[in-house]
Amino acid sequence: MSVVLGPGEVSVEQAWAASFLARLPVRAQEQLRASAHEEEVFAGQNLYRELREPRFSVLIMVVNGLLRAYVTSPQGRQMVTRYWRPGELVGMTSVMRHGAPSGVDVVRQGTILRLDPLTFERLGRSDAQVAWTIAEELADRLIIGAEVRLPNAFGSVRVRLAWHLLELACEVDGEQVARVTQQDLADSIGSVREVVARALLTMSQDGLIARKGPAVVITDPDRMRLLAQSFTE
């Protein structure tokens, strides 16, 4: 499938070069690319659901757009655990464990590159350099994951909202804009809309954000980043 690039979008080659896959041996990269295919994805589309039983593997590289990973409580409430951007590989856990502890869906329309998980697994098992590169990537993810989880686990509603808004924002006419509803934010942080609405109001009064129709404009990105990285305000 040939995908036409829009303003600000990148090609598969550019996304690949930005990913950890570019650190693999050339022969391994060639084998992965040979079985891969590009496809367009749309906002709200589910790419895979949580499945802890060892039944399947999915491996996706984000080319354009934004994906998110989520977990669901026994009561059916969802919480977003991370976002995936161009050049990032989604589904490595499912390849290692043949099941995924979290689901993944599309936040912003874009394109992905579907890779063959069986080829990825075979290369990891047979090539020490491939295996070590994968191990380095997984170690990096553990470190980044810990940095993200701490504020989201122990931070206030404002701290968690700041993190999500920064992750969701993209540049529009020189402004950092997040197109997201209060209900989506509530679902993302595991709260309710009324609590999120009050927190957004205080953030607006503090000069951190402004509402522009259905979108949230981050008016002070530096202070928002400090807030998102804090445990207390």
Q: How would you characterize the overall build of this protein?
A:
This protein has 233 residues and is α+β, with helices and mostly antiparallel strands. The protein has two domains: 142 residues, Jelly Rolls, CATH 2.60.120; 73 residues, Winged helix-like DNA-binding domain superfamily/Winged helix DNA-binding domain (Arc Repressor Mutant, subunit A), CATH 1.10.10. The chain is built from nine helices and ten strands. A hairpin with a 2-residue loop joins strand 9 and strand 10. Helix 7 crosses helix 8. The longest helix is centred in the middle third of the chain and has 27 residues. The radius of gyration is 19 Å and the shape is elongated. The relative contact order is 0.13.
How would you summarize the topology of this molecule?
Blueprint: H1 12-18, H2 26-34, E1 37-41, E2 46-48, E3 59-72, E4 78-84, E5 89-90, H3 92-97, E6 103-115, H4 117-126, H5 128-154, H6 157-168, E7 170-172, E8 175-179, H7 182-189, H8 193-205, E9 209-212, E10 215-218, H9 221-228
Antiparallel strand pairs: 1-6, 2-6, 3-4, 3-5, 3-6, 7-8, 8-10, 9-10
Q: What is the structure about, briefly put?
A:
It contains nine helices and ten strands. The protein has helices at residues 12-18, 26-34, 92-97, 117-126, 128-154, 157-168, 182-189, 193-205, 221-228, and strands at residues 37-41, 46-48, 59-72, 78-84, 89-90, 103-115, 170-172, 175-179, 209-212, 215-218. The mean pLDDT is 87.
